[in-house]
Amino acid sequence: MQNLVLAFCSALMLVGCTGQRVWAPDEAVARAAYRHDGPPRLTLYTMINNRTGAGAHTSLMINGSQRVIFDPAGSFKHETLPERNDVVYGITPPVADVYTRYHARKTYHVKVQELDVSPAVAEAAIRAVMSNGPVASAMCARGTSAVLASLPGFENIQTTWYPVKLADQFGKIPGVREQELYEYDSDDNSKVLRQWNPDAVARGAILQN
């Protein structure tokens, strides 16, 4: 009986550690796929409380054969951006911009850390996030650090639960460039996505060209 109870409790714990499964259709993912012409790159985002300095969220943008954002247990959702288990597709420059502005507000700023990598490392990162599965709430840094630690050349990254600790580790890698984004909008960041019109952005880009 005791073994049965232990098995039941273990099952509950495993369920609690699993995020919500989201799986966009193949055609939506293929249609949204965007390849940026910049170098293969990893961009680590860390959302930091302006008052306490504590980390609130971690995510990873990967530029390889296509550009995606691994947004573990994130709240960045838009009907034009297909998602598969925390991997968001179609990360054009306007999408990357609205992603950071969505997270930066009067109570939080975003630390942006960029590292150019080899094409092989970028592809390994894309494969890792695609196969990772959904991440449970409050495990964003753990999921991201585990992905990074699995990559060639990133073996010194230690798995951590804390976004700022992960940013500190990542910042010690030679070649990392850092900047911080501050904005002072209200804490209701949902309006950033409500007001964002990808069709208008696309029309503006055509007019500029």
How would you describe this structure to a colleague?
The structure is a single chain. With 209 residues, this protein is of the alpha+beta class. It has one domain (22-181). The protein has helices at residues 2-16, 26-32, 93-103, 119-132, 140-149, 163-171, 190-195, 198-208; strands at 41-49, 55-63, 67-70, 83-84, 87-88, 108-116, 177-181. It starts with a helix and ends with a helix. Mean pLDDT is 88; it is low at 2-16 and 201-209. This is Lipoprotein. It comes from Roseovarius aestuarii.
The low-pLDDT segments are 2-16, 201-209
Task: Return Rg in Å.
Answer: 18 Å
**Average predicted confidence as pLDDT:** 88
Q: What topology, given as strand order, has the largest sheet?
A: 4-5-3-2-1-6-7
In total, how many beta strands?
Answer: 7
Number of helices: 8
Name the shape in a single word.
Answer: globular
SSE string:
HHEEEEEHEHHHEHH
Note the beta-strand portion: 15-25%
> How would a crystallographer describe the biggest sheet?
7 strands, antiparallel
Helical residue percent band: 25-40%
What is the oligomer described by this structure?
single chain
- Tell me the domain tally: 1
Derived structural class: alpha+beta
Please summarize what this structure is.
The chain has 209 residues and is an alpha+beta fold. The protein contains eight helices and seven strands, in the order H-H-E-E-E-E-E-H-E-H-H-H-E-H-H.
